[in-house]
Amino acid sequence: MGSSSSKGAEDRARRAEEAAREAVATAAKAYLLTAETNAKLVELMNDMQRIQAAHDQLEALEERINMMEEIAQQATQRAEEALQRMAEADENAREAQEEAGRAIARKDETLQFYEAGIQPADIPSEEEIQAMKNKIQYDENIFHIAIAGTSGSGKSSLINAFRGLRSTSPGAAPTGVMETTTEMARYPPSNSEHPLAWFDIPGAGTHQVSGWKYFKKQGLYAFDAIIVLFDGRFTETDITILENCSRLDIPSFIVRSKADVHIHNIIMAKQSDDEEEDEYDPRRLQQQYGAAKTQLVKQTQASVKLNLKQTELSDQRVYIISANNLRMLVKNKKPRKVIDEIELIRDVYLEALVRRASDALDSAVSDLARWEGVFYQDRFSRSQDIDVLHDWEPVL
């Protein structure tokens, strides 16, 4: 009995010891776990502090970025304002320079008129120029050409030729032996491919006026270009028109009309009674035509050159033409004999392109250049029916 009790006590003591050891072990483990947890908590706190610090830095950085963006926007705005002020200053300077240029031009123009004996009161004002432009229905997209000259020089016939019309065609400018035009007549462009408007100006003899009074009375100062047309003699009125074109920087063309009539008259004047019997000899006629043409060209060029030199005007080309030949070319036909008709068409359109650049004029000038080459390559062809002016669009 005693022995059994002692053994039970030992067992309980052993179990208690084991429990104690386990408790110690558990406590040790708990301690270690607590230590590890505390260490992790410390590390986590440190991480949180670092994150907070980074967050604070990020916020500070964002604030600095926002500040820099605002500064940049303000700088950009100031730069744009400065550029705008510079642009306005440049524009004001340009306008001032242009106005100064116009003032100098007006001063020079006034001086030129004064030297020519024209009083300032007779010089057209801006209001008069605008009024004249309104009268001729001035359009910035159209090139306005005045045909001026003495009575009977063939102005109406030249306009009809440029428009591809005969004198009997509907819408043609009236022609006649006596001076037909007593008031300026406007002939508008016939289609968008040829934006040129033609103006038949009364001859100087019509109103018994000449010189500057004629130039001003007819409002020639409002046109984009002026063709000075003469038939026989190069007159004082023709010279005056050219002088005023030079003063006002208006392009001008000197044209002698009725070349076919003048050549025929030269041939007839040189023929003897015996030659009249052979007047239908083609070879002789060709020789006579060549000689008469050369004489007409030389005499005309010499006369114009002398007149220009005497009035101290710059040398200028004179175009010798026949209205009938010009009309045939405009209608895309090939006349048998030409002098300066092709060059006149080309130069008028080139001047129009310079002053009134447009796709239509650019296309017309390009076509002119091509068919001019074709024409002279086939110069000796006698056909009047073949359309040799390739790509050229007839005006009507």
TrEMBL record:
<dbReference type="InterPro" id="IPR030385">
    <property type="entry name" value="G_IRG_dom"/>
</dbReference>
<keyword id="KW-0342">GTP-binding</keyword>
<keyword id="KW-0378">Hydrolase</keyword>
<dbReference type="Pfam" id="PF05049">
    <property type="entry name" value="IIGP"/>
</dbReference>
<keyword id="KW-0547">Nucleotide-binding</keyword>
<dbReference type="GO" id="GO:0005525">
    <property type="term" value="F:GTP binding"/>
</dbReference>
<protein>
    <recommendedName>
        <fullName>IRG-type G domain-containing protein</fullName>
    </recommendedName>
</protein>
<dbReference type="InterPro" id="IPR027417">
    <property type="entry name" value="P-loop_NTPase"/>
</dbReference>
<comment type="similarity">
    <text>Belongs to the TRAFAC class dynamin-like GTPase superfamily. IRG family.</text>
</comment>
<dbReference type="InterPro" id="IPR051515">
    <property type="entry name" value="IRG"/>
</dbReference>
<feature type="domain" description="IRG-type G">
    <location>
        <begin position="141"/>
        <end position="336"/>
    </location>
</feature>
<dbReference type="GO" id="GO:0016787">
    <property type="term" value="F:hydrolase activity"/>
</dbReference>
<feature type="coiled-coil region">
    <location>
        <begin position="6"/>
        <end position="106"/>
    </location>
</feature>
<dbReference type="GO" id="GO:0016020">
    <property type="term" value="C:membrane"/>
</dbReference>
<dbReference type="InterPro" id="IPR007743">
    <property type="entry name" value="Immunity-related_GTPase-like"/>
</dbReference>
<keyword id="KW-0175">Coiled coil</keyword>
